[in-house]
Amino acid sequence: MWTRKLWMGLAAFGGFVAIAMGAFAAHRITDPQAAEWVKTGAAYGFMHTMATFACATFMNIGGRRARFAPAFFLSGVVIFSGSLYAMAFGAPRWFGAITPIGGVLFLIGWGVLIWASLTIDRAQKP
Fold first, then answer.
1. Low-confidence ranges of the chain (pLDDT < 70)
2. What is this structure's pTM?
C-alpha cells in the first residue's frame, strides 16, 4: 500500500501546497503574524517534501531503511504546517500546542535517514 510511487506523489502534492501557501502569504495575507505562520509552515513543508524525494535516492543506493522516513516527514508536514496554516486562517491559538508534535515527527524522520545511511556502503560492496 505505502509504495515509493505513493510517497513521491504525496511529496509532489506537498511541494505544490507549500509553494502555493508561501505565495499566498507573500501576496494576500495582511496580518504579519498570520503571514509569518504561513511562511514558516510553507518552508518546513517544502523542506520535508524534498526530504521525501531524497528517500528514494537513499533506497536506490542501498539505504533500504529510508523507506520508513517519508511517513514521518509527511505526517510532520500535515501536523506542523497544517497547525500553522490553521492558526493563520483563524483557528484558536491553542492549535500552536500541536505544532511541536510535527517537529518531533520531522526529527524522527531525520533519525531514520541517519539509521538508513549506516547500510549504504555495506550494500554497495560486491
1. 122-126
2. 0.91
